Amino acid sequence: MRIDFEPEAMGPTAFYKLLTSVIVPRPIAWVSTVGRDGSANLAPHSFFTVAAVAPPIVQFTSVGRKDSLRNVEDTGEFVVNLAPEGLFEQVNATATDFPHGVSEFEAVGVAQEASARVKPPRVAGSPVALECVVHSTMGLGNSTVVFGRVVHAAIDDAVMVDGHAEITRLRPLSRLGKNEWGTVGDVLDLARIRYADWEGQGPEKV
Hints:
By secondary structure, the protein is an alpha+beta fold. The protein contains six helices and 14 strands. The chain has helices spanning 7-10, 12-22, 67-75, 88-93, 104-108, 167-170, and strands at 26-27, 29-34, 40-45, 48-52, 57-63, 77-82, 112-113, 122-123, 128-140, 143-155, 160-161, 164-165, 174-175, 181-182. The strands form four sheets. Strands 3-2-6-9-10-5-4 form a seven-stranded antiparallel beta sheet, with helices on one face. The chain is globular and about 60 Å long. The model has no long low-confidence stretch (mean pLDDT 95).
């Protein structure tokens, strides 16, 4: 038996909590930007994914008008840093609603390093940094989706194995429901099945 939920009857806040409890785990874009005044901003966004391959475009969603959104609109640049398990408390702390102009790098004590192609700094302790220029933005209700073309990727060689970023070395955090966070658990390795090989290879029907 299923329980039915109607967004209109529940209201946006209650349905948001429901959505974020079932759309899990969600990867985290730890987005660094720079404001017009030169202050660096750093904030986690868990509505994040790859949007396109050629050209390489990633996307994150700002729910409401946060500093990350204002800065990318003003400057056209941002960096997506991987949110690693080892910086769990710092990632969470950068979600604090600091006043506009306060740098989360400085307030939280997150070390930064210069980017190669864009002005916003990278998180020095993050194993992956995707430097992006804004491709476009799309307003959807109270949220804005930011699409960024990746112009440079910087990956720590310590997480690379045979040219592949190894998940057990990356140790990315993910967001779940409520105040819950996820870490890497069991990793299942299963190749896709070609149609030419399908006969007798599909999962058993139940």
